[in-house]
Amino acid sequence: MRHCLLSFSAITLLGLTSCRDSKITTYRVPKEKGPAITAAPAASANNPGATMANTAVTTANGPGLTWTAPAQWTAKPTSAMRKGSYAITDDSGATADLSITAFPGDVGGDLANVNRWRGQIQLPPLAATELASATNHLDVNGLHLTTVDFTGGSSSTPQRVLGAIIPVANATWFFKLSGPASLVGREQAAFAAFLQSIRAPSATP
Amino acid sequence: MSDLIRQFRDFFVSLKLTVVLIALSILLIFAATLDQVNLGIWAVQQKYFHSLFVMWRIGDIPVPIFPGGYLIGGFLLINLIAAQVYRFKLTARKSGIWLTHIGLILLLIGELLTGLWQEEFALRLDEGETKNFSESYRSNELAITETTDPKFDDVVAIPEKFIARGDPIQQAKLPFRVVPKIYYPNAALAARDANTPGAATTPATTGIGLQATATLLPLTYKQNERNAPAAYIELAGPEGPIGTWLVSADPRFPAQSFEYAGRMWKIAFRFERSYKPYSLTLLKFSHDRYAGTEIPKNFSSRIRLNSPDGRDDREVLIYMNNPLRYAGLTFYQAGFENDDKTTILQVVRNPSWQLPYIACALMTLGLIIQFCIHLVAFIARRRPAPKAVA
To answer: Which residues of B touch A20 (CB under 8 A)?
Structure first.
């Protein structure tokens, strides 16, 4: 009796562990609506969709911009959100950060984004009527740039932001240099030259 | 009992075997944890735990180098059952140990059945869209569909492994043979301009393959990525080849139509589908945030569940920790995309999902009973003998 029980459990176990085998199947289904048989999203094949862990970080997948960074800027690793990232350090160890990000659509418009940057250096938001006087415009290699230059922060540690907003295809790109006002001021000319180097992929020199 | 059988029994009843198996499983878990860096969690589960042996490739030959999870778990299970049958007597004093062991046996069986039977699929629904199928996270299939009938499609679904094998496939419902010519387990697609002199040659003779080429990519094991296999498929009728198509499981690659023998067909490499006898419609996906912030508060999908027999036609709300359980499947809120207009539900079939709960309950009960038995015996021993009354 005991042998039977043991043998039975061993055989059942072996039976269970024999592999499931996939087979060719045939079936009839009601016709699908829509032109294509693949109803999956137009996202990258390597991205099975957003999960709860990576919410609200949709970056633009359209044509990428290219640029040439000054030699004294140190490239940092890019991330899911950043298309480009540089650190600028002076002799005293102060560091400024240059970030390049891109998002689909207009991301709330220029006013919202300009005010977001102002908020980061403790400046009050601008009204819609004040936006035009607070921004400048540049045309570079066929791209239209909206640029800003704000200084805020506290009187003991003033902070400055130099930024450019560039609509490209159906996305918006943001180039932002932020950090201690003195360091950012020193890099202002380099940043202006950097903006001149930005190109759309199809633009020719 | 012959000596051989006795030796066999003693081997499986032995406590030494238990110790060796536990030591082996510690080593297996340690190695698998380290290898997770290279392979990701899913491939590690398949290689180390859902296998009889861990294989190592020497050249093209897979060589078993270590017992896998099924072998160690299986031996542990037999060892535990054998010990129970031959060593422990069922007495009231041992009832707690019996219950605990039965719980442990159930836990091992539950894990085995989960590994064998559990299936996971994804169901993507745009708002207003109705679907009666979900798609596999990892498996792909070549679907050849006859679309002649105005109401129905007749599908022949060929799993990816048949394409990988490369042998010609003859299926009774198809008037042609399917001959996989080239197969890439993961591929990148690139545009090809046939008019440019020196354009790369392509094995494709018809369809999108004339304007696109596929090149081999290394396999990805990352958890948030999937491989997009591609293949060049020749269809051949009795009179000779009909054409060679490039097909890809990349979701952007559409199905391709053609006509053969007066009937209309479509060919597509796609995520493996699992059809249901009912349909789900996404009425609304909600992504609630805490006021004034982008911090997610809740994700929920309002779904209409409809079965054609009319038994079910109701609305359900699926949100985190509140899945829909229906017809043996569990639909979890798993993700979203497309600017909050598309929901992704994880569809899980696990017929043995209750076993771990039952096992844990039995083990807890067993341990409590055994503890109480010992406690009562201990108190009884400590109680001083009543003093004689003068």
So the answer is: 116
d(Cα B126, Cα B338) in Å, to the nearest integer? 8
> A30 at the B interface (CB within 8 A)?
yes
- B388: helix, coil or strand? coil
ipTM exceeds 0.85? no
Gap between the Cα atoms of A60 and A43, Å rounded: 11
Residue B169 has φ and ψ, to the nearest 5°, of -115, 125
From A17, A30, A48, residue closest to B226, measured CB to CB: A48
User: pLDDT, tens digit, for every residue of B247-279?
Assistant: 999 887 888 888 888 889 999 999 999 888 889
Strand partners, B287: B299
Which of B149, B155, B255 is opposite residue A27, by nearest beta carbon?
Answer: B155
How many C-beta atoms surround the C-beta of residue B37 within 10 A? 9
For residue B148 the two structure tokens come to: 């002649």
pTM: 0.57
Burial-class residue B315 by CB neighbours within 10 Å (0-12, 13-18, 19+): exposed
Cα–Cα distance measured from residue B278 to residue B329, given in angstroms and rounded to the nearest whole number: 12
Q: What is the pLDDT of residues A69-79, one digit of tens each?
A: 888 888 887 76
